[in-house]
Amino acid sequence: MTLALLHQFEQSQWLDSQHIRMLQIQQLDGLLAHAFETVPRYRQQWAGVYHRKRPLTYDTVLQLPYVSRVTLQSEFEAFKSAKVPSSHGKVQEGRTSGSTAAPVRFLTTQLSGVYWNALTLRDHLWHRRDLNQTLAVIRRESSPGRYAGWGSATHGIVKTGPSVGNTIGADANELLDWLASENPGYLLTYPSLVAEIARLAIARGVPLPNLREIRTLAESVNEETRALCRLAWGVPITDLYSASEAGYLALQCPDHEHYHVMAESSLVEVLDDSGTPCEPGQVGRVVVTPLHSFAMPLIRYDIGDYGEVGEACPCGRGLPVLRRILGRVRNTLITADGKRYWPAFGTRALMEVAPVTQYQFVQTAADVVEARLVAPGGLTATQEGLFRERVMSKLPKGIEVADRLSREDSTQCQRQVRRVHFRSRARAVAHLTLAAGRRARSRIPAALRNPLRVRPHAPDSADNQTARCACEFAHDPAPASAPRAYAAVKSTP
Fold this sequence. Notes:
The protein is α+β, with helices and mostly antiparallel strands.
């Protein structure tokens, strides 16, 4: 089935944009009918807007309400379909990492997995990869070791070289040494991490002679990072845009550095403050509808990112174009000796301690890292202690827990946020994920309208004026007495 889909994709990518939109509406019609019939929440919300027996148009779609991450997080059961088509295969539950946004649970099916694999193969074919090479992977989910193939997408379809994995918890110098010893043909990791490894490679003169391409995910890629990789190893970056709960959203064009929306599997909308689709050159929030999410229909899901719409691509593909994707940067920790770390605190591990629904790690002073938690009902002293232990186990040596914990409530959030401080004898800097609240596009600072740059900065820098890791609820301006890192763009509900 995967190869059959891939064959269809080879044909559909060359259709004109109007034909592609027509096919999307046809697919969406079936999904909306299924959601209306099997998910009571949608049936109630869409009353008077959606009519099953009327022909579906995109104008009707624009009238449907959004689903936010916070809503999906808090109302998981309400979005489950009462009757999943048996042809979609086994239903499985997944969970987002929660590394840069509120962790959410979701349901997926075997059919969605087939689409994932087919689109992975499309990416390999687009960029003409030599599958006999070694693939190195450095991700949160990676386990150190060597594996027989490149993963499920190629398994049983084409023979590949091995893959090797390492964890983002290692020091960047150690990761560079590891890459030099493995000498892979391809590297899959995060833009901020590969940028630091490239800087070290340039400074130390460490080549990766067999490296052909760097594949990045989960963060925004800027020209500086692309230039660093070209300078360090003479290779390009190929980025992809995906989400655990929504699948592939866009792949980088094989001929240009912008992205093609995976229109065969998702309806991706980029909308301005009024909910109107953005024109080429305009930036708006990204709203997605996975077209095969029949176990848990996500209709107009506000994923929390911002994107810029691009012009039609000269390559001839009719797939919609995203010029760039904004608002995704993974946290970085820097110690006094200049080493950078990407701590993986683990959503599941933190949620085992207490019902933590959202969390954010922020630098509030030169020697303090603060964890902000949203835990309905608060934390007991025992839970606080366990939380501190879990976090400390993931931090590099030299960073210690503060002598006491602040128990004051934050007035800038709609829900209680408990503050837990971590003090370091060495200098520690937390790079924040920059983004704006929903419907706050007109107030997004310049730092968000341009590609984000990952770099050390003082806690009083302009970049700290807007920050969001896991907070999806509305923010109010921080009081004058609060650290500047607390300042946030106010969003309307």
